[in-house]
Amino acid sequence: MSFNNLDQLYRQVIMDHYKNPRNKGSLAGEHVTVDMNNPTCGDRIQLQLEVEDGKVVDAKFDGEGCSISMSSASMMTQAIKGKSVEEAVKISGIFSDMMQGKEPEIDIDDLGDIQALQGVAKFPARIKCATLPWKAMEQGVAEKQ
């Protein structure tokens, strides 16, 4: 697949998550809520996590922002649901490395839809958009421990 075709595919994945976000909404019952915003561009997210026995049982988000931040939130909630807190934080570290242009320690194909955001690393002003939901997740699981 050529670079242009791959780039187009990644854009489609990002727009799909933006227009049809997964896990958008609110959790019922006991959960951790983290509100974060990116004052630079106005992105804001409210992340709700249900963490039980060291496992992310459920994750939902709400907020407003650009396609990068909202699709990143959608992808992140999909990636961490059902994972241990340790695994979720590890995925977040891999994502952070990817945003800094570092080679991930795993095969990038193992990241699923998240790999579509790797091109954001070329645009430093957009990295904060992509990492906002991940930072909220890290704060949320830290509060729960």
Automatic annotation (TrEMBL):
Which superkingdom does the taxonomy of this entry point to? Bacteria
Q: Name one GO biological process term.
A: iron-sulfur cluster assembly
Q: Where is the NIF system FeS cluster assembly NifU N-terminal domain?
A: 10-129
Among the GO molecular function terms of this UniProt record, one is: iron-sulfur cluster binding
Family recorded in the similarity comment: Belongs to the NifU family.
The cross-references to NCBIfam families, in alphabetical order and at most eight, read: SUF_scaf_2 (TIGR01994)
Name of the protein in question:
Nitrogen-fixing protein NifU
Tell me which species this is from.
Pontibacillus litoralis JSM 072002
